[in-house]
Design goal:
This protein is an alpha/beta fold. Helix content is 33%, strand content 21%. It has 9 helices and 10 strands. The strands form 3 sheets. It has a 6-stranded parallel beta sheet, sandwiched between helices. The longest helix is centred in the C-terminal third of the chain and has 16 residues. The C terminus is likely disordered.
């Protein structure tokens, strides 16, 4: 275990009991022509974090830590998509509609895939989720328990929606959570800033926040290595 510099105070980082949880870095959210863009959003802030996410992911893999990827999406018949979600907003493309990257947010379509720079490797856990949080209607809790995971380091998009929802779900389940602040982003900069403030308020009521540089330094600390690889 090592003390990872973070806000509001140092995070007691234990790689052997920690998973890197990468939230929804999918083409439908990050790339032009996807669902995020169809809502009228500028996707460039989300694209900008990909190199930082990739650097942390590469270092995590080298250290032998557990990696979990999530993808938001629905069955082709949309039977797991509530009507309220299907009709929400005023996008040019709705969930299930055919767009430039196939049917929007449908499992197996090109847009549902994780961006190539962060593509899962064999043995890494991939969680398909129908909601915003990664624990709702998924096997994530059981998979983490099987691996002895008690801490989560989170990256991904968007900060205020799927990332924050997952972090709050994890907090309620007893996980210590750290969000990598420059490896997450929003279509709305003010929403990201507000989320970081909410997470760290009142002594870290939801968790910790730290820059990627602090996580990379911790992964390079001999105190946390070597670690036995978590089972696939």
């Amino acid at each position: 275990m090592t003390a990872l510099p973070a806000r509001p105070f140092a995070f007691p980082f234990d790689l052997a009991r920690c998973a890197l949880l990468i939230i929804d870095m999918q083409r439908d959210f990050v790339e032009p022509g996807g669902f995020g863009a169809s809502l009228g959003n500028d996707v460039s802030p989300l694209q900008a974090i990909v190199p930082t996410c990739a650097a942390v992911l590469a270092a995590w893999r080298t250290a032998g830590g557990c990696v979990v990827h999530t993808r938001e999406g629905h069955r082709p018949d949309l039977s797991d998509c509530p009507p309220a979600k299907l009709s929400r907003g005023n996008p040019s493309l709705r969930i299930g509609d055919l767009g430039p990257m196939g049917r929007v947010l449908v499992i197996g379509e090109p847009g549902h895939a994780i961006v190539p720079a962060l593509a899962p490797m064999p043995g890494e856990l991939v969680i398909d989720k129908p909601g915003k949080g990664a624990f709702y209607a998924t096997p994530l809790q059981a998979e983490l328990q099987q691996r002895g995971i008690r801490q989560l380091v989170l990256m991904g998009v968007t900060t205020e929606v799927c990332v924050q929802t997952t972090m709050r779900e994890a907090n309620d389940r007893g996980y210590d959570c750290l969000l990598v602040e420059d490896a997450t982003d929003s279509y709305f900069p003010a929403f990201k800033a507000a989320t970081l403030a909410m997470i760290t308020a009142q002594g870290g009521i939801v968790g910790w926040v730290a820059p990627a540089a602090a996580v990379l330094a911790a992964l390079a600390d001999p105190a946390v290595l070597p670690v036995a690889k978590n089972p696939a």
